[in-house]
Amino acid sequence: MAGLSTYIPDKATRRGTEKKKGARILKRYVFPFTLALIAFASIGSAGAQTSGKEGTAVAIFAGGCFWCMEPPFDKTEGVISTTSGYTGGTTANPSYEEVSAGGTGHIESVKIVYDPSKVSYEELLHVFWRNIDPFRKNAQFCDTGSQYSSAIFYLNEEQRELAERSKAELEDSDRFSQPIVTGIFAAAPFYPAEKYHQDYYTKNPNRYTFYRWSCGRDERLEQVWGDEAGGH
Fold first, then answer.
1. 188 alpha carbon, distance to own chain's centre
2. How many helices (H) does the chain have, and how many strands (E)?
3. Is 149 part of any domain?
4. CA 223: distance to chain centroid?
5. Cβ neighbours of residue 99 under 8 Å, at least 6 residues apart?
6. Are residues 102 and 169 in the same domain?
7. Whole-model pTM?
8. How many folded domains does the chain comprise?
9. Would you state the pLDDT for residue 10?
10. What residues make up the domain containing 42?
């Protein structure tokens, strides 16, 4: 048509346009995907860590709702920190919703970092036993499901032997008429629970107290352990 001209970009211009388009694709799709992979790897690595820093040791116990298992250990002299989390399953980096729904194989647990020069693993076992109902399978107090099982996860041969010995001593003590069903397993990767679960009893004291009471935890502990029952 008269008066109109057709613009045909040269090779340099086309290369520049293609480079910009490629950069947009990298920024929009490739970079986020790469960062996600890095983050996933970092979380998985952190979750798998079950050893403590030099001069400390780690213990992992499961006794039903992890909110209720932090306090007795936090009050134990020599304990440095407690972390609520999930372990024993096959799903990497599980969420609370996934674990609660079942199917991940994970159990709500607490990871305890402690100073072995101030508190022994045997003493931690003593605290653990007296804060659980060792007779309920796939449940603890008002919470039911395999994710609320009671268990000891040992990190080395010494812990395994001590855990098995403590269980055998309770079984042989003739104080109980029911079999103890608490499991003893080799430690698996431990995945910290969501931030809002950590130190729940200090962040939400009223809700925690109501939950613990409505669940009948302390009442049942007194039935099982009498004066030795763990506190809250």
1. 11
2. 9, 8
3. yes
4. 28
5. 86, 89, 106, 108, 147
6. yes
7. 0.78
8. 2
9. 53
10. 10-48
Instruction: For residue 4, tell me if it sits in a domain.
Output: no
Amino acid letter at 44?
G
Closest to 65 (Cα-Cα) out of 160, 207, 163: 207
Which residue has 């520049």 as its token pair? Answer: 16
pLDDT of residue 32: 37
Q: Assess whether 18 and 93 both reside in one domain.
A: no
Give the integer Cα–Cα distance in Å for 140 and 142: 6
CA distance 114 to 81: 7
Q: What is the mean pLDDT of each run of 10 residues along the chain (232 residues)?
A: 44 46 41 37 42 86 98 98 98 97 96 98 98 97 97 98 98 93 98 98 97 97 94 63
Active site residue 142: no
- Match 């693993």 to its residue by tokens: 121
Give the tokens for residue 137.
């399978």
* Residue 52, pLDDT score: 65
* Residue 41 shares a structural domain with residue 112: no
Q: What is the pLDDT of residue 57?
A: 98
Query: Are 71 and 154 part of one and the same domain?
Result: yes
